Amino acid sequence: MTAAAQFIDVTRTFGDFTAVGSLNLDIPEGRITTLLGPSGCGKTTTLRMLAGYTAPSSGTIRIAGKDATRLPPEKRNLGMVFQSYALFPHMSVADNVGYGLKLRKIPAAERRSRVAEALDLVGLGHLAAQRPRKLSGGQQQRVALARAIAIRPSLLLLDEPLSNLDARLRVQMRAEIRRIQAETGLTVVLVTHDQDEALEMSDVMVLMRAGHVMQSGSPAEVFPRPANRFVAEFLGYENFVPAGPAASDGATTLTVRPEHLEIVQGEAPDGARLALPATVTGIAYRGVDRHLTLAAPRVKGEGEGDVTLIATVRADHSRADWRPGDQVTVAARPEHVVELAD
Ligand SMILES: Nc1ncnc2c1ncn2[C@@H]1O[C@H](COP(=O)(O)OP(=O)(O)OP(=O)(O)O)[C@@H](O)[C@H]1O
């Protein structure tokens, strides 16, 4: 894959504090890359360095193969959309979208056709003459996208673009941005702290923590195989069991998703990788599923107290429901058990 942009050993410090440390990252051309992680992990600083608003303390940033480390933002040919759309209230939608083209001194006729094309792409051609304040949040978001796309940027940078939208619209806009990316072939870098958004939208997701990349890859690579406990927890894994002597080198913890735990009475099924005696401590009914909480005593030498486990099981009408106090075996097949380093 060709890299549209590259971070080569990029560090950014603020005083003694390292916001981004020795970052090496390729942004593949014509794909959506998301920077994902909790608040303060350095996502925005990384995006701002790519945009040219924050200079790296050391290291090199290349855009389209050229050293862009010291290039000012306006020379990088980037489109940006922020959380706040920053539309000009006194201008029509069309003038908002055409603003960057005017700055670039694109002749009026071409400007008109590129504005129309960008508005069609986001499905707002019919609102060209409106003022932004007459539009819904979702429509304003699309205007901001159209404005960023109209300049035909070599990179489209989106910083938490969906976080001001209500939940339903947010989910719609995920698919919408994917469609726009597929139709234009743009290279997109998206910052988010929402793992569902990243899983749905990314070609490549980059998980960050405290200024460092913890893991990167496609959602299909990362989600089933989190590299460490931080990534697993961030992606919503809940069950963490001491790995014990049978684990590979370096693995200290095993994890299994709630829907992959099997609850049985008596012996674990043949070939199970994990088999723990446990007591049912709680049960919640959620439509066709049952959410069980269980307590499994630790093996001697692996710490104090019980390990709490969460299992999602399908209702089985051939038998009575599990009840608090039931003694069971919690089991998982080898293909569902992920070994984690700390
Ligand atoms: N101009 C600055 N001066 C001092 N510290 C800064 C500055 N900008 C960012 N930081 C610090 O760098 C760290 C990373 O910030 P950054 O905004 O990149 O994180 P983030 O992952 O985008 O978080 P959020 O989702 O909250 O925006 C934070 O601890 C922040 O306080």
UniProtKB/TrEMBL annotation:
Start and end residues of each ABC transporter domain: 5-235
Listed EC numbers: 7.6.2.9
Signal peptide annotation: none
Entry keywords, A to Z: ATP-binding, Nucleotide-binding, Transport
A single cellular component GO annotation: ATP-binding cassette (ABC) transporter complex
InterPro entries per UniProt: AAA+_ATPase (IPR003593), ABC_SmlMolc_Importer (IPR050093), ABC_transporter-like_ATP-bd (IPR003439), ABC_transporter-like_CS (IPR017871), Mo/tungstate-bd_C_term_dom (IPR008995), P-loop_NTPase (IPR027417), Transp-assoc_OB_typ2 (IPR013611)
Pfam families: ABC_tran, TOBE_2
GO MF term list: ABC-type quaternary ammonium compound transporting activity; ATP binding; ATP hydrolysis activity
Top-rank lineage group of the source organism: Bacteria
Key word Transport present: yes
Name listed for the protein in its UniProt record: ABC-type quaternary amine transporter
